[in-house]
Amino acid sequence: MNDLHDVAIVGAGPGGAAAAHYLARQGLDVLLLDKADFPRDKTCGDGLTPRALAVLGDMGILSDLRRVGRRIRGLEIFSPNGRSVTARIPEMAGMPDDLLVVPRMILDNTVLERALASGAKLAGGIPVGAVEQRADRVVVTGEHAGGTVSFQARMAIIATGASIKLLIRMGILRETPPMMVAARTYFEGMSELSDRIQLRFDGVPLPGYGWVFPLSEGSANVGAGVYAGRTARRRTAISARQAFDAFVHSPSLERMLASAHQVGPVKGYPLRVDFATAPTFGERALLVGEAAGLVNPLSGEGVDYALESGKIAAEHLAWMFSTGDLSRKNLEAYDRRLRQHFQSLFLFCNRVRDLCLNRICLNFLVGAAGRRADLKTALIRVVLGDQELARHMSLGRILKAVLAASVI
To answer: Is the pTM of this model over 0.85?
Structure first.
């Protein structure tokens, strides 16, 4: 095709669609490409943190999602020994004080429709195989209806999630980065659900975790994740399905699922958690969301970072277009902007994960949080990815508080 777009975005999930919305709202010609036809499902935990809700509110679609989602007021964390700590969602500057659980079939389509309403265009059902620089543009090549199609744009955004094939072909990645793996399904007819999500370290192989995210009074997204980069060093690596099976057959989950029935298959998926060392741009291309490794290495949450980085990429590209300077030095400036926004949080979460995702430390941490309100709030804020906490709270201070609370 001969049309020259301002920006071609590969991947129409939350990160790509959010970027498309913000760019189109600035009057830029934006083309979204995706291998799927929408609406489509996406394997995920379905939870939306306050960070995600803040961006969705800024996009003007939060009220629509609240009408179809399950509002969550609190969070309960279970240690390996079965003890728990419960807290309301704490207030964080400029963000809602709740969570929302929305199936990705609904969420992704809502964000995409907002982008299209803002003026972006969509080319669905097109698996993209190459993004190549040609002088002052990129050429995006894909497959459609048994043939090859191509599109031209002055700049590209890559929002392809955990899939790394395109990034390797573009020369942005050279090898498979560190991954988490997870699996989830849905259950209906469950008992013991409330307006809290559960993050559980009991009944799962460590280093890993399980979750229960309520969708209604009797239904939930239930899943488990495991840190593949660490378990790979064991003699026998633990798969996402093995972690899931162990979780749902643990005593606590068997009780919750005693009268429930499974809805749909168990689906597994990888999660890239390597932002701290990941590339964030290529030739005439910016990376957003999981394509830049932006999945929290502690919680496995990625939708909020996809939305935020999509907005940041759009703001940065709009600025580049306004200056007329699409050079590499301004692509490097995008990397610096992402590092300023996310790097301290990811380094902090990496350290917490590596130190605390073992049985003894988790038992101490959750037990101490149950005795100290300040430590409990800090623990919840860490799980929710609070950037301000990561910037101002050292791991040493948390450990001192844990030890102090443990001897009370």
So the answer is: yes
